[in-house]
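ok so i was messing around last nite and threw this chain in just to see what happens. nothing serious, just curious
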Amino acid sequence: MFEFDQYLGFLAFLTILTIGFWLMIFLLTFVIPYWIFGATIENIKLKAAEKRKARGQA
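result:
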């Protein structure tokens, strides 16, 4: 059925596929939402600081 080198290639393929799958799940469920949420909070803080600065000058 399989020779030994084909078996090792198949195992390497499955390993890479599994690592890629779990990396994609990790990125989609944790890293990207964390990045978007952090950028949104930072923009809100910057806009609030600009409003405070404009009120202080006016």
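not much to say yet. The chain has a mean pLDDT of 94.
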